[in-house]
């Protein structure tokens, strides 16, 4: 065992000892024993898991793992840290244990308060059969892109193949499987709204990032970054901070496993912040941004033109294509 690995394990174990009774003893005992959830008075306790989990993956994942496996492990670790952070701070004292476990294990959203809320005297609208079919169709479309369309493209057009594969994965997970989970939870009376809400209909960047695209991440950044920082930095500074955080997270998940393209995802999100502020400016409003067809064109242009910064060549070549081969898509 390498000295680096031994040192990393020791570091993680020491941190784990520090939070053992505050993190596990407080929440999990209350969760599984049926007691009320005990919340620590220290504001930073909920952030410890978010710091530990990616660190543990970066240190402990063997170098023999394929890079795409390291990428998924790192992304899952960051997601689990974010999930625990929202669970830790949520007002969940009255939520049944099955609902708490469902939020932690069977729902990808990050709005713990809404998911865990027990609505007394209020009902959640059940999804219609057409919504179930629509979600299933999106999942089927994603599988078709992955296992059908991608194979019809010439191998020398590997960047296009990778993009088709990425769109297929997003369709399978975010638009298909996660929408079906939303339908299932709402069917049993839990307010778990779809995470993707027709993003292609967005007529402004504010609408796209704030209300339609991956609302799980939006819920997280809005609560823990935008709202607290608005008082200190103002609305513009808070917008930049939120997008900067998104850039750092995506650089960690995309560029680090790929071993290249560093800074591209961060620059992509900086451009999104600049675009959002411009469309809200007097000049942006004067030329019709933020609404109508002009707003839609501006939004799609701001998303698509710099997209190669986000999903750059190293990521597609080193992560996406090997992953597609591993799952039999190529």
Characterize the structure shown.
The protein has helices at 3-33, 48-60, 67-89, 97-105, 112-116, 129-152, 158-187, 205-212, 215-258, 264-280, 282-286, 292-304, 307-310, 313-326. It has 14 helices and no strands. The radius of gyration is 21 Å and the shape is globular. It starts with a helix and ends with a helix. It folds into three domains: 3-102, no CATH class; 123-194; 197-330, no CATH class. α7 (158-187) crosses α14 and α10 (264-280) runs antiparallel to α12 (292-304). The model is unreliable at 1-41 (pLDDT under 50). With 330 residues, it is an all-alpha fold. Helix content is 73%, strand content 0%.
Element order, helices and strands? Answer: HHHHHHHHHHHHHH
Strand content: under 5%
**Structural class designation:** mainly alpha
Helix count equals: 14
Major β-sheet, in short? none
* Cα end-to-end separation: 36 Å
- What would the average pLDDT be, to the nearest integer? 86
Percent helix = over 70%
- Based on DSSP secondary structure assignment, what is the total number of beta strands? 0
Radius of gyration, Cα only, in angstroms? 21 Å
Poorly predicted parts: 1-41
Shape: globular
User: How many structural domains are formed by the residues?
Assistant: 3
